[in-house]
Design brief:
By secondary structure, the protein is an alpha+beta fold. It folds into 2 domains: 2-217, 3-Layer(aba) Sandwich (Creatine Amidinohydrolase, Chain A, domain 1); 221-478, Creatinase/methionine aminopeptidase superfamily (Creatine Amidinohydrolase), CATH 3.90.230.10. It has 16 helices and 17 strands. The protein has helices at residues 2-23, 34-48, 72-78, 105-111, 120-127, 138-148, 167-179, 188-199, 209-217, 221-244, 251-264, 327-346, 353-370, 376-392, 463-469, 475-478; strands at 52-57, 86-90, 95-100, 131-134, 152-155, 204-207, 269-270, 275-278, 299-303, 306-307, 316-320, 401-403, 423-426, 429-432, 437-440, 443-447, 452-454.
Length: 487
Amino acid sequence: MFNRIGLLSLLLVSLSALALAQEGFSLFTTDFPPEEFAARRAGIYKTIGENGLALIQGAPNPAGYTRFRQSNEFYYLCGIESPHAYLLLDGAAKRASLYLPHRNEARERAEGKLLSAEDVDLIRKLSGVDAVYGSDLLVEHLARAARTHGRVVFTPFSPAEGFAMSRDLALRVIGDYAADPFDGRPSREGAFIQSLRARFPQFEVRDLSPSLDNLRLIKSQREIALIKKATRLGGLALMEGMRSTEPGIYEHELDAMAKYIYYRNGAQGEAYYSLIASASNAWYPHYNAGKRRMEDGDFLLMDFAPDVGYYMSDVTRMWPVNGKFSPWQRELYGFYLACYKAILKAIRPGVTAQVIKHEAAAEMERVLASAKFSKPAYESAARNFVANYKQSASNPRGGLGHWVGMSTHDVGSDAGPLRAGMVFTIEPALTVPEEKIYIRLEDLIVITETGKEVVSDFAPMDVDEIEKFMKEPGMLQRYPRDRENKP
């Protein structure tokens, strides 16, 4: 009888989830099975040991009419996308407990179903956690643990990554708060840690961030699949940008075009604000205002990618606004491209970034020896580019670019040989200060067991290919801006 009741209960849970999915409510991710989240939690259990607890705070509800997006750290360990949630991992029992707010029926009537503390059986089945409680019980359960054990509690000290957020920018925000004489608020993580220590002085509170970072460094095949989808959408947007670019359009129009491609194909947001910089705006690597009207003769940089299922990409291309490389653009970009391809060629598993950089720098020197430049400033820029890259190869902690994953500038610290499952970009920049010229490309690279995959290499980067591609009709020409609402 018990088995029949259990099977019936599971069937009802499954049918309920299916019915909600058909109505358009996504209660749980279809990108990862519960087993993958369980494997990630197992990595945390190994870190915290049998005397440890790990407590991870989920993201709060956003202000304003903004869709909720879970923090990367919380989603990585359980996949639950309900706001104001907590995940408690018990190292001794190897037990995962989820704490959620109770059902808000009024909100559900307005916005639709949301997982809450009352959905115990459904949540356990979907996520694989061992127990589900109301968030009002969390303090009581922690008090019991503090009373019976002199335990260590691990929680992330680093700021949580949310919408279009990497840790470097999250830290900058905290610094801005601290520098404001009428603000000075602590980070959400800082306030949480202070509260834990004040309420439970018996606990020793330690940083969980390094362990989470190490787990996230090597991507699974399902993670890589999402990164590849984000990369493909980013590349498609760049290609459409090439088609649509012509003198007279504004930078922000390419931003709008790219967002259409992302959202039309299932992205949940942008990985970062669009960097669409024409002429001297490209001199500022993170220029994002998008207000300039492009002119004949401009050189354009576009760096933009989406967030697909909590996984990002980062791809950059450059092209002439009028569709034809001018002599100086062909000269400098051609030299840079040859050097850039030398780096791509050298990348492989089993060697360090330093080995790859030394090999690429040797090839760059050969390129430089045969290159001819029309201005002393251009030759000086080329020589500095090669010399600086060669010098960077001597830095034992230096990488090839930056990791990519759940954030655009992803977490993880590893200066050893490249290993399968590592995902990163390269983005060296050539600059001519005298003329405020900035040239940069960027590609998404996945290290495999036997080599590498340059996932974004379908997006044109060769001069002749770009010029040919820009002759094709573009989306912005097919759908011109409203003449009554001039930018």
